[in-house]
Backbone:
């Protein structure tokens, strides 16, 4: 395939294979041993005879990946680490019995059976999100620090939509141990 954007870059017609399409594209061109990065039809890198831009196909690909990171990663990072689903106006407390500790990436979850206020004698399963296992391990947690049946009181940042659960702030066990989180709605930016 011949691309006029690349042809303008190197000054003559070449047969090029596009690797990525959208606004930006990388073309590996036969006979030039070079890749060309174009953005919106504008040549960003050039090959032989064009010293103004980097010649290496590896640098062209690295450039494309770097720009992809610049435009894509911040949204992903901020979306993943947003605490918008939690009510940051204050913490609440519930007491119950540990159902399960999910020691998995990207976040550890602690599941707790809490007595139902609406239906006495029954329980509601609450979910508490926490940090990732590596962060918690550095703070004294491990995959067996909580066991099914442990009594616990949990201080948490509630979910905005009112579902049972939230973001773990700290948990207190009857033996005096306190398990804390290192993140949460009010810790962003600290």
Residues:
């Amino acid at each position: 395939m011949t691309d006029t954007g690349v042809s303008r870059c190197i000054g003559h017609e070449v047969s090029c294979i596009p690797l990525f399409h959208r606004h930006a594209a990388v073309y590996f061109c036969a006979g030039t041993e070079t890749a060309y990065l174009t953005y919106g039809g504008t040549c960003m890198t050039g090959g032989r005879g064009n010293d103004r831009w980097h010649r290496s196909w590896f640098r062209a690909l690295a450039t494309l990946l770097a720009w992809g990171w610049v435009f894509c990663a911040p949204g992903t990072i901020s979306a993943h680490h947003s605490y918008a689903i939690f009510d940051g106006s204050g913490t609440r407390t519930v007491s119950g019995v540990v159902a399960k500790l999910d020691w998995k990436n990207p976040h550890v979850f602690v599941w707790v059976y809490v007595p139902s206020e609406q239906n006495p004698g029954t329980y509601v399963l609450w979910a508490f999100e926490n940090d990732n296992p590596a962060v918690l391990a550095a703070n004294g947690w491990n995959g067996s620090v909580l066991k099914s049946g442990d009594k616990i009181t949990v201080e948490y940042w509630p979910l905005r939509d009112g579902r049972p659960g939230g973001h773990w702030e700290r948990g207190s066990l009857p033996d005096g141990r306190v398990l804390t989180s290192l993140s949460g709605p009010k810790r962003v930016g600290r």
The longest strand covers residues 92-102. Helices lie at 4-10, 57-80, 133-137. The chain has two domains: 4-80, 92-187.
